Amino acid sequence: MLILDGKMTAATIRGELRGQAAALRARHGRAPGLVVILVGDNPASQIYVRNKERACEDVGIASRCIRLPADIPQAQLEDTILILNRDPDIDGILLQLPLPKGLDSQRCLELIDPSKDVDGFHPMNMGRLTLGLPCLRSCTPAGIMSLLARYDLNVAGKKVVVIGRSNIVGKPLALMLLQKNATVTICHSKTNDLRSEVSGADFVFAAVGIPKFVTADMVKPGAVVIDVGINRTERGLVGDCDFAGLQGVASAMTPVPGGVGPMTIAQLLVNTLDAYVEHVSGC
Ligand code: GUN
User: Fold this and answer.
1) How many helices (H) and strands (E) does the chain have?
2) Which residues of the chain fall below pLDDT 70?
3) Secondary-structure breakdown of the chain: helix, strand, coil percentages, each rounded to the nearest 5
4) Whose C-alpha lies nearest to ligand 1, atom 3?
5) Confidence at residue 167, expressed as pLDDT on a 0 to 100 scale
6) Quick check: CB of 94 below 6 Å from ligand 1?
7) 216 CB burial (10 A radius; 0-12, 13-18, 19+)
8) For the chain, which end, N or C, has fewer CB atoms within 10 Å of the first or last residue's CB respectively?
9) Is 119 among the residues known to form the active site?
10) What is the pLDDT of residue 71?
11) Domains in the chain, start-ordered, CATH in brackets?
């Protein structure tokens, strides 16, 4: 079985971005700028944000984290976003989710200038994705598409099953696969016979958030399995798929950790550079 090495692929992409960022900075006189807004003290979010900051530094993107207290009023959080929208040195604004209880994340996401929406969560970017138009695309699904492309895995004409229908992963991933001419089925917690849907698939994408949810007996021999799960257990980080069991069945698979996760961060850097290019080309 081929292991789809996201860690190595992301490092390759970061190397390419480093050169592009340096050339762009020399030409336009400023580095690309990303701001991450972190509200409250969710421990998982703190780790994600630290990894994003490190990755930015590695490729020459100026990144800043705005830390706000969990009890910040909604209006003050909204004002913070509006100020960043007007800041000409900021190309990307990432509001780390989930927000603490009492804050309306959807309202905040819709306030972010779509040209700075490096998460691709704004309805303008999601709508453009649906229409097949150029846009900033959600990092995890776009990172997965980039990993498939780097390994020459072509979904055109293939039966693909996406398990999970979140706005962050499942829905945008299904749209990106459709754009690449896959025959897409989206499964979720209310799907009647998940097993029969998955067993016919050439590609299985698992984004359910349940450890070892996809097992060897569910998957067609030779299928490609992409594990989007990041489940923190007492035995460390585990995916949504039974990696060991699937080794004798799948033809290719992403590990956890070291699969989709690093590609998500690489895509955030790609999106920030794309947003920067858009902003400087308008100057
Ligand atoms: N929390 C978990 N994943 C993500 C993501 O992709 N973007 C943001 N903003 N928050 C997250």
Assistant:
1) 10, 11
2) 283
3) 45, 15, 35
4) 97
5) 97
6) yes
7) middle
8) C
9) yes
10) 98
11) 29-115 (3.40.50.10860), 139-261 (3.40.50.720)
